């Protein structure tokens, strides 16, 4: 196994109405290719903040994040958007599917943005929707799907470009236990079959245990559990 992510002395502060909130305070992390990691911790400790920084949706105040040995802060905007589109897949608690597009179109979209031919994007999206058990629902808009089905579409969309890493922020938080377990199984399957690394922030203890490696975010740093 080789190193996918290395985080060194990561600091992140927010300034809100003149007050500085130090959220991440010298955080270190190493993640191997294909590894699974659960990040737990009380509400407000900075789990989402960390995932956003790892996915380059937000910038650190200081410190280093290396992706496959490359310093992310040294990447230009083109390289960063390439990374965001191709190397990383995001799954959030609320899925952010586009309401006016059907399931198939929602999954195709990242591929179309990446410049794939329509037919290739369609075939790729169909295969994934079949894999997540939604072959019969491809024409439905998100509003006509259940919460769990919407989340499965979101997972399919996050992996169409075959990322190396999935960052999932409370992916089962808005779902009932059984549907939440389906999403867990789906993420585990992608990890096992496609070798994707999986970083999940969750309040769900059982899910965190099943992931295997667990760390707690506390006082701005990560502690092994
Ligand atoms: N854009 C922002 N501006 C100011 N403060 C912020 C911003 N984003 C996050 N924070 C603050 O940073 C802290 C960490 O927030 P974050 O959302 O990362 O926590 P979390 O661990 O994901 O919590 P939860 O478990 O509730 O999702 C909180 O105190 C939050 O108010
Ligand atoms: Mg959060």
Using only C-alpha atoms, the radius of gyration works out to 17 Å
- Which geometry do the CA atoms define? globular
Derived from helix and strand composition plus strand pairing, the structural class reads: alpha/beta
The major pleated sheet works out as: 6 strands, mixed
CATH superfamily: P-loop containing nucleotide triphosphate hydrolases
> Which spans of ≥5 residues are poorly predicted at pLDDT below 50?
none
Give the name of the CATH architecture.
3-Layer(aba) Sandwich
Summed over residues and divided by their number, the pLDDT gives a mean of 93
Give, in order, the helices and strands.
EEEHEEHEHHHEHEHEE
Give the tally of structural domains. 1
Kindly describe this structure:
The structure is a single chain. With 225 residues, this protein is α/β, with parallel strands linked by helices. It has a single domain, classed as P-loop containing nucleotide triphosphate hydrolases (Rossmann fold, 3-Layer(aba) Sandwich), CATH 3.40.50.300. It contains seven helices and ten strands. The strands form two sheets. The protein has a six-stranded mixed sheet with strand order 6-7-8-3-9-10, with helices on both faces. Strand 7, helix 6 and strand 8 form a beta-alpha-beta unit. Helix 3 packs across helix 4, helix 4 packs across helix 5 and helix 5 packs parallel to helix 6. It starts with a strand and ends with a strand.
